[in-house]
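Action item from last meeting closed. Structure (302 res):
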């Protein structure tokens, strides 16, 4: 109960203020000690809040950069002031992407290579460091799916999916991790998992386990690299409209049935993916690591 005309003692005011954000008040941070625990006040101005998301001058390496997610991430990060190294298996698709980014005022370069070839991955990482003097952000947007019953699916198809999704992610983490650790300035690693990394589905005995592995790779690396200030998180989207999933949008019965399970009432568009990438790339997520962020319109909520 709050007594009328009650005026709390000054030190109590400071303590209660220590848990709120005092926006733009421009006072020195207040601190006091209570029960042996240091309590701090915060002096937060508008520019401090904006700087939480400021990515200007950072360097990002994006795999699968010309894919549905990769393209929006490459363009979006570049428009946020990030120098973007785009990679994928084909120069023919990477070159126009880089031209498009530069035309829009961003800074970008490309280095082609297969994400599942260790020598290619080493070269792409080396090219990135040579071109932009380091790497601050890695986004692994290369990946593939091919549904099929376990009875019918050929082993080589299963291996192709596991390779692209798990081995490719692992190789990029390995090589970029070395760079980030040597740089000694921390880093942000963003892996692309899927809601299927948590939920099974008929005909998904390659894809679901591969994405489960990606989610656990994020958690394992979070444990391994926390002391280097390298945050490793995974984004787990539901169905988004990209080349990978166009068949789901084209199949009316599948589409309508799937839609019923999404509280927000629509499937994702690649742009829906970007905000989470910006957040996970920025200072705003410095205390978050090993998290799986479900960007799924509520699909996994209930
Ligand atoms: N779209 C969705 O609904 C959805 C939902 C959940 C998770 N995801 C995940 O998000 C990531 C990006 O998907 P997306 O929708 O952007 O797909 P996408 O448009 O098909 O792009 C994926 C990119 O991965 C690369 N890739 C494809 N097959 C490969 C292979 N066998 N080996 C190596 N690289 C290969 C390709 O790049 P290059 O040809 O240039 O090498 C391709 O552009 C994938 O990991 C996917 O599983 C997507």
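Sequence:
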């Amino acid at each position: 109960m709050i007594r009328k005309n009650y005026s709390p003692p000054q030190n109590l005011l400071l303590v209660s203020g220590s848990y709120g954000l005092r926006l733009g008040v421009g006072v020195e941070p207040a601190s006091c000690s209570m029960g042996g625990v240091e309590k701090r006040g915060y002096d937060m101005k508008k520019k401090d809040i904006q700087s939480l998301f400021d990515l200007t001058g950072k360097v990002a390496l994006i795999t699968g950069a010309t894919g549905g997610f990769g393209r929006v991430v490459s363009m979006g990060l570049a428009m946020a002031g990030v120098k973007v190294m785009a990679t994928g298996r084909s120069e023919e698709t990477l070159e126009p992407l880089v031209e498009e980014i530069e035309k829009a005022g961003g800074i970008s370069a490309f280095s082609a290579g297969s994400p599942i070839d260790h020598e290619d991955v080493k070269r792409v990482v080396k090219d990135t460091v040579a071109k932009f003097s380091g790497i601050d952000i890695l986004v692994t947007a290369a990946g593939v799916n091919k549904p099929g019953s376990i009875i019918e699916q050929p082993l080589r198809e299963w291996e192709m999916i596991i390779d692209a999704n798990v081995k490719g992610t692992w190789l990029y983490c390995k090589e970029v991790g070395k760079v980030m650790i040597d740089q000694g300035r921390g880093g942000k690693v963003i892996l692309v998992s899927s809601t299927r990394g948590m939920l099974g589905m008929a005909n998904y005995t390659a894809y679901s386990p591969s994405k489960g592995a990606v989610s656990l790779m994020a958690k394992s690396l979070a444990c391994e690299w926390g002391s280097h200030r390298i945050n490793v998180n995974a984004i787990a989207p539901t169905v988004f409209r990209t080349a990978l999933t166009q068949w789901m949008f084209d199949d009316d019965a599948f589409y309508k049935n799937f839609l019923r399970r999404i509280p927000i009432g629509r499937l994702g568009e690649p742009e829906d993916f970007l905000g989470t990438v910006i957040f996970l790339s920025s200072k705003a997520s410095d205390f978050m690591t090993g998290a799986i962020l479900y960007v799924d319109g509520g699909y996994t909520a209930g």
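Note appended to the action item: Residues 64, 66-70, 88-90, 93, 115-116, 141-145, 160, 164-165, 168, 192, 194, 237, 239-240, 242-245 surround NAP (CB under 6 Å).
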